[in-house]
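Batch 3, record 17
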Amino acid sequence: MGYSIDIYLIQAVHGLVYGMLLFLVASGLTLVFGMMGVLNLAHASFYMLGAYFAYTVTLYSGSFWLSLLICPLIVGSLGILIERFLIRRAYKGGHLSQLLLTFGLFFMIGELVRIIWGSSPLSVAAPKILAGDIPFAEMTYPIYRLFIFGFSFLVLLGMALLLMRTRIGIIIRAAVSDSSMVEALGNNVPIVFMGVFGGGSALSALAGVIAAPFLSIHLGMGAEVLLDCFVVIVVGGFGSLLGALIASLMIGELQSFGILWIPRLALIFQFLLMTVVLITRPTGLLGEKE
Amino acid sequence: MSRFPARQLGWGVAVLILFLFPYFLPEIRIHLMIEVLIFALFAIGFNLVFGYGGQLPFGHAALFGVGGYTVALILNHYPGTPLLLVLLIAALLGFMTAIIIGFFCVRLTGAYFALTSLAFQMFLFAVALKWRSLTNGDDGMGVIRPELHLPVLGSISLRSTTNIYYFILILVAIGILACYLFLKTPLGNSVVSVREKDMRASFLGYNVFLVRLTVFSVSGMLVGLAGGLFVFYEEFVATTSIDMNMSMLPVLMTVIGGSGHFLGPVLGAAFYMILQDWMSSVTSYWMVLMGAIFIVIVLFAEGGLISLFKNERVRLWVSRLRSR
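Prediction for the assembled complex:
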């Protein structure tokens, strides 16, 4: 291999950046699954909506920062409405009907996006401060990617503080392990779940917004991230946030180095990883037994 | 018992109508009917795992694609192979692929099962996309539809719409009948008992893993045949036959038609294809409509469209209409 060490460093940072982005999406998915057992396929649609809304908001207001603020709020409220009026009805029907419902939502939101924004790819320019490159390990590195990493890291920190240090966080974590017991202790679990669902949707949209200037905005982006997220939560273990973080970074690095070494098989690596994990450890790296 | 002859008669009329289609439908409708038939077989095979087995396979396009690519590759590389043998190989390869995929999937339930089957489908999709020297990637491969050689009747050209319609109708009917008969066997019955309560079934002495694996592979055989017929009819195969959208189709069709009845998926496939044909020329919003119908059915009418026929109120309404 004729690569210098710098290439490896750059690829490693690429992997970290994508991994953190993936974690923003996967964290909401895994929390919702852990709490209510709903594997929300529509979660990836929220990511896609975030990116498309960012395009529109940036187009009309000219400010990326505004869209970073507004889009997660819009999509988060949308998520709350969807939970309250659609998904809540499907709890009685069991896992299959929930899976089917969110599949229908995923399908429908994808089609609506195609009708509203058209099927050609769109792009959003990164804000001026974050455009350009900085010197990095004898080469240059785009500032925007570093921003993604830093920003996701801040969100991760905020989320960790919320979950580990506040009362609401205790309730959420308890509800992940046994929601009926938490409800029996006098907490309003449906409201908490609605909040987590909304928060997860908002995080997913946030990831969509910050991904918009970095990846192109296109119709397949929902399905792409959905597949990666599946791999993340299966590898990390359903409902485990730390597992999701580790798995996200693993997938990020795997893709990054996979493309460098064996580009033809890059698509396959993550599924190989997922299959291997499922066979050897069906509950994922940090998942608990059912 | 008094309803029995009526039911027999109903079947007879349905088969007769299917056979008479080429005499009163225009050619373009026959092409639509062929697609309905192929996807009906796909959905029936899917529903074997979904409705009867109680597990949601999100990656059945893997088996569909295996059948399709098998037909395309054999017909391109060994053009002399008898057609029925080619389709048989497609079905068998679907069966064997399903054994391999099922071996890893059927131990799992719920979302785990759905995701793992999806992972295998994406894996095969990636192979079909990247192994360009074999599959020609996303550009796809053309296939020339061969003639059908039969021992007594001699060779039959399948170029005419009517001939290919009959050919596919007969093969799909055989597939669906085989599936029906499979469900009537004790093994077929045990599928349902495993779905209802796998632990109880295992206490009764059923090998839950083996029952699930069997139903998954029989499903794979039907789906492989459907994929083979699809490619053979379209005379083209590309990664669209093995991608995620193709995996979603039987889910939509089966749920809309109704997974609780043997013929629900057939109704769903017919509804989906006919609505697609009718609406896509009028508006591009039809997929949204389809999604909305799907969501409404999941939330409010779990039996799907076919349960309308069982609904007392609807039945009363129909009988009143008839007596008028």
